Amino acid sequence: MPKLGVYAETWPLREVFTISRGSRTETPVIVCTLEQDGIVGCGEGQPNPRYDETQESSIAEVEVLRAAIEAGDMDRVALQEAMAPGAARNALDCAFWDLEAKRAGKRVWELAGLPEPEPVTTAFTLSVASPEEMAAAAERNAHRPLIKMKLIGEGDLSRVRAVRDVLPKTPIIVDANEGWEPDMVDRFARELKTLQVQLVEQPLPASTDAALADLAHPLPFCADESCHTSADLERLKSRYDVINIKLDKSGGLTEALKLRQSALDAGIQVMVGCMVATSLSMAPGVLVAQGAVVVDLDGPLLLAEDRENGLLYDNEGRVHPPKAALWG
């Protein structure tokens, strides 16, 4: 029977990271381990205060299932009903996948019936700052093949213009993190299209995004905070063109793969994103990101240091699939 481990870690960031909801200099994660017959499977989740998650609450969620897991009465399939989607289930779900792969002597993609994954081009994120500061950050990262700008509301058009001035040809996507008001959406989106922005993530709060169904979409709108699991798709398909799949929202690789297939079947395009976390958290996302229209798995690039056997980010802006020594 597997022995469960769950603990908290805090990783310092390379520099202050700011979005519409605030700033931080470090990122808290939880790690789950499952050990059986001397083999250890691992998974990582990044608790998000936006969803009322903390390290303490996430660890408590996992601990509720300790007895069932260690008695052999809980597996990855049962986990989907036993826990709500979120960072805690993500860490545990991915630990189950990792343990299963290592015990079978296979890779996770083989167990999931997926093609062997290839490197994918990832966005690099610029946190919110003044137009001048964001332009300077963009210039420092001019070698990146795709830039993602965090936005906040008023002043956003100036921020994008400043970055576009220093990066005239680089593809840009933007993420408002629920920071816009309804009367901003049409005005901002039309102007952003002229600035050759390719996509807008979550312009409105999830609680008010029904308004998007009645607005023009001059460029694609992508659901982030509004989309967690496949159960959300029916509600969202008239409001968004793309969904952002994050394993910390879906509650792990199991639901993320289901969500991806359900979205594609419904004619909704897929983006794969991440919270700010280590390569252990990104690794399963690389599998989900195969064929996505946008990939944003740059979490480790925002850290002061990553964990051992971290993902390879090459000079062409691509993130490579994980080695077995890391995960899967």
Commentary on this structure:
This protein has 328 residues and is an alpha/beta fold. The protein folds into 2 domains: 3-107, Enolase-like, domain 1 (2-Layer Sandwich); 120-319, TIM Barrel (Alpha-Beta Barrel). Helices cover 33% and strands 22% of the residues. It has 12 helices and 13 strands. The protein has helices spanning 55-63, 66-70, 76-82, 87-104, 108-111, 131-140, 156-166, 182-194, 233-236, 247-250, 253-265, 279-288, and strands at 3-19, 22-36, 39-45, 120-121, 124-126, 147-150, 172-175, 197-201, 221-223, 242-245, 269-272, 294-295, 318-319. An 8-stranded parallel beta sheet has the order 5-6-7-8-9-10-11-12. A 3-stranded antiparallel beta sheet has the order 1-2-3. Helix 1 packs across helix 4 and helix 6 (131-140) runs parallel beside helix 7. The longest helix has 18 residues, at 87-104. The relative contact order is 0.15. The model has no long low-confidence stretch (mean pLDDT 96).
Q: What fraction of the residues are assigned to beta strands by DSSP? A: 15-25%
Q: Which superfamily, in CATH terms, is the homologous superfamily of the largest domain?
A: Enolase-like C-terminal domain
CATH C-level class of the largest domain: Alpha Beta
Structural class comes to: alpha/beta
CATH topology group of the largest domain: TIM Barrel
**Number of helices, where a helix is a run of at least 4 consecutive DSSP H or I residues:** 12
Strand order of the largest sheet: 5-6-7-8-9-10-11-12
The secondary-structure element order is: EEEHHHHHEEHEHEHEEHEHHEHEE
